[in-house]
Amino acid sequence: xxxxxxxxxxxxxxxxxxxxxxxxxxxxxxxxxxxxxxxxxxxxxxxxxxxxxxxxxxxxxxxxxxxxxxxxxxxxxxxxxxxxxxxxxxxxxxxxxxxxxxxxxxxxxxxxxxxxxxxxxxxxxxxxxxxxxxxxxxxxxxxxxxxxxxxxxxxxxxxxxxxxxxxxxxxxxxxxxxxxxxxxxxxxxxxxxxxxxxxxxxxxxxxxxxxxxxxxxxxxxxxxxxxxxxxxxxxxxxxxxxxxxxxxxxxxxxxxxxxxxxxxxxxxxxxxxxxxxxxxxxxxxxxxxxxxxxxxxxxxxxxxxxxxxxxxxxxxxxxxxxxxxxxxxxxxxx
Length: 334
Ligand SMILES: C[S@@+](CC[C@H](N)C(=O)[O-])C[C@H]1O[C@@H](n2cnc3c(N)ncnc32)[C@H](O)[C@@H]1O
Prior knowledge:
- About 50% of the residues lie in helices and about 15% in strands.
- It is an alpha/beta fold and about 325 residues long.
- The relative contact order is 0.08.
- Helix 7 crosses helix 12 and helix 11 (about 150-155) crosses helix 12 (about 155-180).
């Protein structure tokens, strides 16, 4: 590499390293904004909102709120727009709408889970998980004394935080499926949403799940048996488990669907697929780190790794379709 190239790289590193030093600051500020309800109040105001009115509405100390808002304007979470010659106000952006609780594009519940103390504590135990001599349990369990599923079972508050987090991402992913790949449900008359939080999940999850029309809420264990249907739907399930466990779950799905016209619909990241190297490329790898932290043996998979678990579970063919999300749709047939 030429000297100027090396110097440029070093200069870049001197800047980049500060992003790591303060990597947590962005999620901490965004969490604070969600808890205060900043995005909700600005959206409801309907026109650029002056700081003084925002502070009054939120019952916040003006100069500290100003600093929080200055940070978020810098990161383009909110915009500043003129109200008149002398005053500016804050306006919503597509990004700030992701912070509105219960909003159409809300990621608020997911951010609150990802910034919750049990989750953050887990990341401190990542190194010992990687060492050969390290823990044989997930960083989540090392930090919190129980694996995620036992932890949520015995902590109703975190059960709710976790389920709401999953539900908020699920809403966005399902919208992306319906928009980008609606044909996936063609001809499907009955479907089981394995680990879907409502339709078929662990008994303690189903016990607090809402009821929707004719949808049956079934508590059970996907390693034991899955209700008979045309299609088994598994969104963000298999990445929680290692290959052996995935094969067990997939074999149960295969037993549950019809041999001739049944299928399994998997919604998961596929590492190294073309789409992954551009816009959302970083996200598959982030999720893979998250899986290492939260699960005992879970992982994100490449196409080759998906092919292995599907063939080992007795599926003879599968196809992979992209959607506007980190996940792809994998349709697998007996
Ligand atoms: C990562 S969440 C995904 C939830 C949902 N599919 C979604 O995309 O929002 C994994 C789900 O699997 C459920 N789960 C874990 N072990 C299970 C088991 N043995 N049987 C059925 N569901 C299980 C959890 O309760 C949780 O709801």
